[in-house]
Specification:
By secondary structure, the chain is α+β, with helices and mostly antiparallel strands. The protein contains ten helices and seven strands. Helix 3 (35-66) packs antiparallel against helix 4 (73-103), helix 3 (35-66) packs parallel to helix 5 and helix 6 (165-181) packs antiparallel against helix 7 (183-202). The relative contact order is 0.07.
């Protein structure tokens, strides 16, 4: 176990050994007179370097878990400085006392050693903090680019679904009947259809939209679908008073997914319910799978939504099938 740890930290051991061998020549006048004294001081310096390096590294890792920089940066900075100061002073005094007891070699003034230890510890903390910020900045750039691609993919997928031959044929077929049967409703149908396209285009560069905006868009989309399916399609939305942000078109894609893959008929109406539960926005439908799907599916809808939410929040989207129900839960995003 010890050998495995040493192999993992071989650079720390190597650098500490080099420091232990070189530093006594510059900091210890008596080392040039006695080789034995030089060995004692070299070992002592080696142990100090190891303790400062590994100890401060452990403190940094522990604090990063308990107080992430992204959550409480000021508190994390103060905690880092305090822990580093206390650990360094305590460890240097402890090692000095142990060294004197074991070697019977008196050491001079301790203040210089403490100043050196603190300088090293703060440099170490600054180095790892800077490294953390640079790595996370780079990762955030990568994540932002991935999110942009996923968002573009979602916009393209939704727009493609709206202009595919099936959607256009169904929409124009419904419209042709409405023109003769109910001209007022036909005008409203055209307006709602244009609203759907306008929203898809307006949100193509947005990562998030308010839930209210998404629900307003859904009202137009649901109007088109219920004109087509009438009582065969039942969509209930219970999100009154819920304040959240959502990925653009996510709810619409889930409704579309349910319609595309399930039977929608007078004998087997499709029931879709949208509600909130334990910090999630849930889209639920009864399962009545089509035996054959006449509409081609790229199979990227649900996957795209899940990937987008991985970038937008630490909580993941949840997909469950239970008791004849298919439920997709999207985590609420408050900020």
């Amino acid at each position: 176990m010890m050998m495995q740890y040493i192999r993992k930290k071989w650079r720390v051991v190597l650098y500490s050994a080099i420091a232990g061998a070189i530093m006594p020549y510059f900091t210890c006048n008596r080392c040039s007179d006695s080789f034995e004294f030089y060995l004692w001081i070299s070992v002592y310096t080696f142990v100090i370097w190891m303790a400062m390096w590994l100890g401060n590294e452990a403190i940094t890792v522990w604090l990063d878990k308990k107080l992430p920089w992204t959550k409480k940066p000021v508190l994390r900075l103060l905690a880092g400085i305090t822990c580093t100061f206390v650990y360094t002073v305590f460890m240097l005094l402890l090692l000095r006392d142990l060294f004197v007891r074991i070697s019977n070699i008196p050491l001079g003034n301790t203040s210089g050693m403490i100043y050196f230890g603190l300088a090293f510890s703060f440099f170490f903390t600054f180095f790892f903090t800077s490294r953390w910020f640079l790595l996370n900045w780079r990762q955030s750039e990568i994540d932002a680019e991935k999110l942009k691609k996923e968002s573009i993919s979602a916009q393209y997928e939704s727009l493609k679904n709206q202009v595919n031959p099936h959607f256009l044929f169904n929409s124009f077929n419904v419209l042709s009947h409405l023109v003769y049967e109910d001209q007022e409703k036909a005008v409203k149908f055209i307006k709602q259809l244009s609203t759907v396209y306008r929203y898809v285009l307006d949100t193509r560069e947005k990562e998030l939209v308010s839930l209210d905006d998404e629900l307003a868009f859904l009202e137009s989309y649901i109007f088109l679908q219920q004109i087509r399916f009438e009582s065969k399609l039942d969509i209930q939305i219970a999100l009154s008073g819920v304040v959240s942000f959502v990925a653009p078109l996510a709810l619409q894609m889930l409704i579309e997914n349910a319609i595309k893959h399930n039977v929608v008929s007078a004998d087997d109406p499709l029931h879709i319910r949208i509600y909130s539960e334990e910090g999630f926005i849930c889209v639920e439908n009864n399962l009545q799978k089509k035996r054959s799907n006449s509409e081609p599916s790229a199979g990227v809808g649900l996957e795209n939504i899940c990937k987008r939410y991985e970038f937008l929040t630490e909580r993941k989207a949840v997909i469950t099938k239970t008791k004849g129900l298919f439920i997709v839960k999207l985590p609420m995003i408050k900020e």
